[in-house]
Amino acid sequence: MDSKSYVVQMNGSAVHGKNAVNAKSLNGTAVNGKAVNGKSVHHVSVNGSIYPAKAKSRRQRWDVKASEMANNTLNPIRAIVDGMKLTPNPDKPMIALSIGDPTVFGNLPTDDTVLQAMKDAIDSHKYNGYSPSIGYQKSREAVANFYSCPEAPLEAKDVILTSGCSQAIDLAISALCNPGDNILAPCPGFSLYKTVAVSMGIEVKLYNLLPEKSWEIDLQHLESLIDEKTSCMVITNPSNPCGSVYSKEHLQSILKVASRHCVPVLADEIYGDMVFPGCSFHSLASLSSDVPILSCGGLAKRWLVPGWRMGWILIHDRNNVFGSEIRQALVKLSQRILGPCTIIQGALESILNNTPQSFYQSNINFLKSSAELCFNELSTVPGLTPIMPSGAMYIMVGIDIDHFPDFSGDVDFTERLVTEQSVFCLPASAFEYANFFRIVVTVPEEMMVEACARIREFCQRHYRPRSRDSNELDQ
């Protein structure tokens, strides 16, 4: 028999070809492993193979383009930094105060118990295969037990393990939002929220933080942004880039807004418990009786292992608002990359339960001391207004740009700081906030002292006592 193709309309109404094929016999059967039900037209060879009908290709040349999602993906930090002219002063060694990685300078190693947990997991040979996409049951139980409290109880089913906190944020936004929706995010705030949302066609509405109130949320502004398309509000506490830690009362006021408008919360709490002595961290879920919350966290910062990429989502939904739908959405989305590293999952229970409190306290004491040093040094520099943080790893410094007529804004200011003094601070324009810059306080003490001295020298050189407007009036 020859291998010529015959067109068969699969509703059984038409058969073409020299040799008639019984369309009825094909209806409801699978030929060569493929179902042939339906009304579509297929080419069927007489030897029983089925091939989809092919339209003639119209392409005359290669024309491969990036997807819209890729083209819509933009990290504001990279957009700012990549466009800067960063040529350090060759006579001064570079001091980078811009990278939120506590491991860069080697002065903040993780604890030996954390390393031993990893070694034990490797030596056990139990964690070399695939895990469930949301993580091993035992590892999720460990996270649930570590973060559970009477006010916000957790079980393993409430935990999704992720490849770092960044993936946790990505999954949470993806599960809660559709193209055309909007989310509310802080300004200044971590750039990833916008990067993820905009790539998926989700609008980002930025609500103001108030520097004069230690970066508390402008609740009136936050509430004014909510509409019928608002699918979640992002609350970052403690804050990157501000280093702020919200009081219990302020968090309760935020939750009242969410409750009043029935808007779920994405709580970015990667810096949870990294607060300075005298301050207290309260998880949002521990203060809420009705607002559904997806809390995102991970090992990166508190355990000083950002490269290990272990994060999680804690699902707080005591009134079953999310129900099974959002939980299933998170599971389905997690299946896209089949879960985080299994070796770290194997070490997770030991890391959480055996890391000594002295390790956490030592790091907190160092960060506070470094932040205080930076704050005290820069508070006396004309034209600068540092805002003392209460936690995390950052301090934000305001620039009275009218006193620096040589510069057009924070990007120009920080760019020239690199050129003249080889000190790199991240301009707050990367966080969509003008005329501030962020300093990372994880650097060794002697390096912080040197950096502050160079910043002082730079400002003294460019500072003008009167504003630009006053100078122009005098001319």
TrEMBL record:
Assigned EC number: 2.6.1.5
The family this protein is said to belong to: Belongs to the class-I pyridoxal-phosphate-dependent aminotransferase family.
GO biological process, one term: L-tyrosine catabolic process
Record-given protein name: Tyrosine aminotransferase
Domain Aminotransferase class I/classII large, chain residue ranges per copy: 93-455
Tree of life domain: Eukaryota
GO molecular function: L-tyrosine-2-oxoglutarate transaminase activity; pyridoxal phosphate binding
PANTHER family per record: TYROSINE AMINOTRANSFERASE (PTHR45744:SF2)
Pathway: Amino-acid degradation; L-phenylalanine degradation; acetoacetate and fumarate from L-phenylalanine: step 2/6
